[in-house]
Amino acid sequence: MLEIMRNVILFVGWPILVAGSVFIFIKGKGVYGMVKGSLIGKISKTLVYTMLIEMYSLGIVSTFFLYCSLKAALYVVIPVFVVWFINFIMAVKVLNYATNEAKKMAQ
Fold first, then answer.
1. Angstrom distance (rounded) from CA 12 to CA 18
2. pLDDT score, position 22
3. What is the distance of C-alpha 23 from the center of its chain?
4. How many structural domains is the chain composed of?
5. Helix 70-106 and helix 39-68, axial crossing angle in degrees, nearest 10
6. Is there a domain that residue 106 lies in?
7. 62 exposure class (CB count in 10 Å sphere: 0-12, 13-18, 19+)
8. CB distance 102 to 35 below 8 Å
9. Residue closest to 9 by CA, chosen among 53, 89, 75
10. Predicted TM-score of the model (pTM)
11. DSSP code per residue over the chain
């Protein structure tokens, strides 16, 4: 049963991780393209890079942990993904706010 839960976590988690990173990269690139060189552009670029590093670091560590100690990993990995998802939502909100601010500056 635990192996099935691990496989579900991995087969659902990694595609979400890849799709989320592509979304954040495209959204951040759009913001950066609008306000290159300004503080908003630099902050959005830094946000995107740190979010991508964080996402894949957590994904790799969680994957190894799921294969090393499955029973303990399930109690750690699920909360880690919940925290990651909250961070992802906050990053998307910040990028949306930055996009709106960049549009206001362009008017």
1. 10
2. 92
3. 9
4. 1
5. 170
6. no
7. buried
8. yes
9. 75
10. 0.77
11. -HHHHHHHHHHHHHHHHHHHHHHHHHHHHHHHHHSTTSHHHHHHHHHHHHHHHHHHHHHHHHHHHHHH-HHHHHHHHHHHHHHHHHHHHHHHHHHHHHHHHHHHHH-
Considering the domain boundaries, does residue 61 fall inside one?
Answer: yes
Distance, in Å, from the CA atom of 100 to the CA atom of 27, rounded to the nearest integer, reads: 12
Would residue 89 count as lying in a domain?
Answer: yes
The reply to whether 107 falls in a domain is: no
pLDDT digits (tens, 9 = 90+) for 18-63: 998 898 899 888 888 888 877 877 888 888 898 889 888 888 888 8
In which domain, by residue range, is 12 found? 2-101
- Mean pLDDT taken over the chain: 85
CA 88 to chain centre: 5
pLDDT at residue 74 greater than cutoff 80: no
Task: Specify the higher pLDDT residue, 47 or 106.
Answer: 47
